[in-house]
Every structure is written in C-alpha cells, then in structure tokens.
Amino acid sequence: MTRWAAVLAKALLLVAAMTAAPHSRGHAETLSLAISDPVIRLNPNYAGAPIALFGRFDETSPDATYDVSVTVVGPARARVVNQVGRNAVGMVVTTRRVYYDRLPTLAHLITNRPLDRFADDQTARRLSLRPVDLIEDARLGTDPDGEAFDRALLRDLVQRNEYGVDGHGATFISPGFFSARLQLPSSILSGPYLARVVLFRDGEVVDTAEQAFVVQVAGLGSRLTQMARRAPQHYAALVVFVALATGWLGGVIFRR
Amino acid sequence: MPIYLPIAELTVNLFHLLGLGVVVGTISGLFGVGGGFLLTPFLMIYGVPSPVAVASVTAQVVASSTSGTLAHLARNTIDLKLGALLVAGGSLGAVLGVIIFDVLKSLGQLDVLLAIGYLTLLGSIGTLMLVESTGLSFRRKQAGQTAQPRPRRRFPPWIRALPFPVTFRRSGLVVSAIPVVAVGLIIGVIGAILGIGGGFILVPALVYLLRVPGKFVVGTSLLHLTAVMAVTCTLHALRNQSVDLILAFCLMIGGVFGAQVGAAMGRNLDARQLRLLLAVIVLVVAARFAYGLIVLPDTLFQSNRIDAGMIP
User: Do A156 and A56 fall into the same domain?
Assistant: First the structure.
C-alpha cells in the first residue's frame, strides 16, 4: 500500500503538470501521457514494483463513451514452445516445436472495461492490443496448429505473471483524465519498456500515443552484470576467487 | 526475503537459496561429492534458466569443495600426484565438454538427451553402489564379521598391460597414467555437459577402477572437483556470461556451512554406510529423471526463452 501511496502522490503532481501543459498536437482528443516512474531500478531487494500511467485528452463529445486501452510491452527475446509426446519406444520426447522471434518478455493489457465491450476483434488484432496478438505476431513458421502453440504459450506466460489482461485496471479519474496501473512482476528483464495507449470514442480509435520507461539493474547487480559482459575474464577470475575464498574462510571459521 | 539475481534476471527468496546450499553442502561434506547433480536440477525446477543454473553451480561446487579439500590437505589424506593427473585430464575434459554441449544444443532435443544422460549415469552408478553396499552387508552378517573387508588391490590384466606406469607412493599404487587421465577426462566431459561436478562418478571410479585406498578417496576426489570446476566455471563465464555471482554466493554460504555439518556427520558413519546412503540419494534423483521420460506431463507444451541464434 505504501508503494501505491507513493505512486499516487507522483500521480497528483503529474496530473497537475499535465493540466497546466498545452496540447502539442492538432485535434482535440489528443492524448498526453505521463508515467509515475520513468526509470525502474532493479535493486538487490527488488520483488516487483507498482507503476502508474496517466493520460489526458479533451472530451469533445460529452455524450460519447470514451474507453482506453494500455498495452505495456517489455524487451523482446526469442522463445520456443516444445510439444512433448511419446516416441516409438514410448519415451517422452519433444515431438514438435514452434519458435517465436522478438516476442515481448512482458505484455499486459490494461483497459477501463473488458476490451471486447468497446473494440472488435479485428481492431484489437490490427493494433496488436492483446498479449495473444503479440504472440501471434512473433510466431515463426507455418505449423497448422500454430494457434494451439500460441494458446499454450499464453497460458504459460500468464502463469508466470509476465503476460496478463486487466479489464478494470484503467480508471477515468475525471472527464478526460485516466490512470492505468500495473504491478510489475518480480522477474523482469532490464531494458526499454513501452506503454502503448489507444483512445476509443464510441468504439472508434481516435488517438494513439506511446510512453517509454526503462528498467535497469542498480547497485552491485548492475556492476556485476556490466563486468560479466564487458570484461568476462575479470569476472571469471572474481567468481573463482570468491568461491575459493568463501570455501577457505568457511574452513577457517568452522575449524575446531 | 527477496533477492534479485542480476544474471538470472529474476527475484528469489534468499532463505530458499541458503537452505538449498546447506542441504547440498551437507551431502557434499558427507560423501566427498560436489552435489551439483542435486543442485542443478533443483535450481532449474525453481525457475533459474538452465544455462545460469549449470554455470553458477560450478562456482558453488568450487566453494563447497575447497573447504573440504583444505581439511583433507591438513589431514594429509590427499594423493597429490594422483590428483594432479586427474585434474589434467579433467581440465581437458571440461574444454571438450563445453564444446560438445554447444553441439548438442544446436541439434535440438538437448533436454531429452540430458535426462537420458542423467538417468543412465545416476541409475547405473546408484545401482552398482547399492548392490555392492548391501551385498557386503549381507556377506558380513553371514560370516559374523565386524572388520572391514580387505580391498582388492590387483588391477585387471588389461589395465596392467597399459604403458606409462606411474608410482603413486601415498596410495601405494603402480598404475598406467592412461586410465587415471582418462577417468579425469571422462568426468570433466560429463561434468561440463550435465552441469555437475561428477564426484559421485569419481568416488566409485577411484574405489573400484583405480583401487585407491579408502583413506585417500574423498580428499583426492575433492581436489579434482575443486580444480576442474574452477576451470569449467571460468569457461562458462568466458563463453556465455551465465555465471550469476549473487546466486552462486548465496549457495556458497549455505554450502560451506552444510559441508561442515556433513563432515561431522560423516565421522559417525563408516564407508559402507556412506556408500549405501549415497546410492539411495543417487537412485532417487535417477528415478526423478526416469519419471520425466516415462510419464507425460500435465501440459504437453513447454516454453523456454532462447538465444535468437538458436532459431533455425
């Protein structure tokens, strides 16, 4: 709760700043975005972090229904889905595999109400709003059962909390103001992240905008990661030294 | 208490890591093995990516073996000459093993090959040890003896016929350097491929194949583990930067403490009881791999993050 309170405090400041700032683009329903934490630091005690996105636009039609979808995506990596089955001798082996290239390591869709209430399937697919759309985009090959692999992968990633859909995670604070909040999981990669926001009016897309944020390893972890990648020979020497020293010290401490 | 592992890129519970280190360290101290054959699969089940688990365990094995090695050095229970030859073979084996691992990875079905490898090795060695231990026990009971059985010191004719004989004064052995280096090399290769120290193979190999007196078996095995795992750890750090020092350090702390507990427990058990207990542990791990190869999992689809270069 304390973390969310801190996020809320930042929200108030951001909303005040956004209210004061003039719109930069032409039409009235232009989205302006701000984020609670542009940089998320993965400290040694990192166990997940709350993040909030704030958006503003001018409502031109008081009678219209506005909806918002926020798709948060993380750095892309390759992934493989193996299907297991029995071989000729009854042993459980991988029988088929489907590869995914440049698949976001994190994908969460946050909306103010379930997406299917205000956007049709084609629009969602075209704009890659849902995690399942991102999976389909990344799938390689022409396996006729590709969708079964997609569904299995989605189940796996949802279980890990790396992918998800929250149909009520976005809230209209007041007309033309909304917030979307997401609890980042404990296992996330460092790198660039993007929140893609789509504004709907009566089911029609009226504007889209993006807000970037960065997840970076901090403190000792950051130094170790850099050393491991930039000077692997020094890192290897450090690891072996630490291992030998820990072993030796343990022997000294526990010697009777 | 959460702790973020920067190379593995995930948050884990610190006390789980320390606890795992203590358990595996106890086994290490008790039997003179590294414990990697338990630790690597456990970390994979816990969610640590397999390259990071395999590589980081090598560092943990170095630490847990170092304290034991130094203790045995102090007690003069290491045959240094024998150890040096084993390490020479093991270091070469580690280099070969890392290359073979890359080839296997590019061929696909690596997980199945690893499972079959673990099952074959652990199953055969565990069964051999179990039969030997219980067989001795049965014969001793029949004869009403309490003394240790006399070790068989004569080598089979094919070993005696090999060239390059070397005298190991401390162990009281004269044997060709070829089987000694070969044992080290094979264990180095297997260790690098399976992500294990290979102590559970080396200990029986020293006892049954090289006829090393029981007094020097555990110390010499630990010396080999320490040196070869240090080489393997260095190779992993250089080739794929997958050694997570924070993960390894947490396991080391638990492991070093556990090794002392294991060593103390070992003083109250005789060699036969130790072999029987190790056989049971090895067979339980083998059974776990057999289960994975025989029983279909609940979900028939399994996903893993991979390097983009692995996409065909």
Answer: yes
The predicted complex's ipTM stands at 0.80
Chain A interface disruption, residue of B3, B11, B60, most A CBs within 10 A = B11
Q: Per residue in B89-128, pLDDT tens?
A: 999 998 998 888 777 766 656 677 778 887 888 888 788 8
- Contacts of residue A43 in chain B, CB cutoff 8 Å? 4
Of A78, A228, A254, the CB nearest to B241: A228
What SS3 class is residue B192? helix
* Lookup: tokens for A37: 């934490």
Q: How many CB atoms lie within 10 A of CB A31?
A: 20
φ, ψ of residue B151 in degrees (nearest 5): -70, 145
Phi, psi for A247 (deg, rounded to 5): -60, -45
Examine the domain organization and report whether A148 and A229 are in the same domain.
no
Say if residues A179 and A53 touch (Cβ distance below 8 Å).
yes
Q: Would the CB atoms of A81 and B301 count as touching at under 8 Å?
A: yes
Same structural domain for residues A122 and A27? yes
**3-state class (DSSP) for residue B39:** helix
On whether residue B303 sits in a domain, the answer given is: no
The whole domain housing A193 covers 2-75+105-217
Cβ proximity of B266 and B34 under 8 Å? no
Q: Is A188 within 8 Å of B9 (Cβ atoms)?
A: yes
A224/A145 same-domain check = no
Residues B67 and B259 sit within 8 Å (Cβ to Cβ)? yes
User: Does A83 fall in a domain?
Assistant: no
Please check whether residue A95 lies inside any domain of the structure.
no
Structural domains in chain A (count): 2
- For residue A183, give both structure tokens: 């609890």
User: For residue range B231-279, what is the model confidence (pLDDT) as tens digits?
Assistant: 989 988 888 788 999 999 999 998 888 877 887 887 777 777 777 888 8
Q: Pick from A47, A79, A229: which is nearest to B303 by CB?
A: A79
